[in-house]
């Protein structure tokens, strides 16, 4: 009861409520909140500290940047915040003004992301994407989990956030992990719409994600393993955060001999055999349930391995 009272007292302030309404639509830095709210940085920081102290928002450090975001999940506090935010009058002038300023911030983010995207992320020659039958891969993935819904998805090595975007309508909450700040900017740009407010991305290592044991029921490793020194570590980490009967989708190249991938695209591994993926999966309590090859006119083929946690 006291915790509920503390949350309600903290939310019972226009400035703090405005911040929560903005964070409902995605994570923001203090600088961005200052710009949107037209308040001083010390005041915004004070409001954020108050909201964090009652456990309804959290802060995420990413290099020199710190993002604030709503605490998602099934806690009593999260549910209380959700009910209150859903009942904010959408016709309120302050609320509408904040949304206009939020869009300006999103537009500025988009400009930065698009500049990077133009230089690198859309450069198929740099990324090796001319070898990926991406449309066929995505169709196969959607067919693989058609009509299923998931509470929490983790996309390990999220890159541009495409997997989170693809499955957004089938998940309650989603998180993407990537080591590259530049790619995370692109992901935030792609996932900036209100339809992606339940999704966040953050910087982190695949081998040691910040999630607790047994929290996710869907994990994706899309074109990630071939960059790693020890791919088995990523599969082991996926197994750690998977719930019982959770699904892991591994999408990567079939074992091949195109040596140029090492020099041109920094691939450490030239694809994988079924035997390797099966061995690494079974060693951490996962069982490969299905294997599907997606053939393209450009070799090598791409394989989708579907694993389930049985213990």
From TrEMBL:
The keyword Methyltransferase applies. InterPro entries: ArsR-like_HTH, Diverse_substrate_MTase, HTH_ArsR_DNA-bd_dom, Methyltransf_11, SAM-dependent_MTases_sf, WH-like_DNA-bd_sf, WH_DNA-bd_sf. The keyword Transferase applies. GO terms for molecular function: DNA-binding transcription factor activity; S-adenosylmethionine-dependent methyltransferase activity. It holds the Pfam family HTH_5. Residues 1-96 form the HTH arsR-type domain. Keywords: Methyltransferase, Transferase. GO terms for biological process: methylation. Belongs to the methyltransferase superfamily. This is ArsR family transcriptional regulator. It comes from Litorimonas taeanensis.
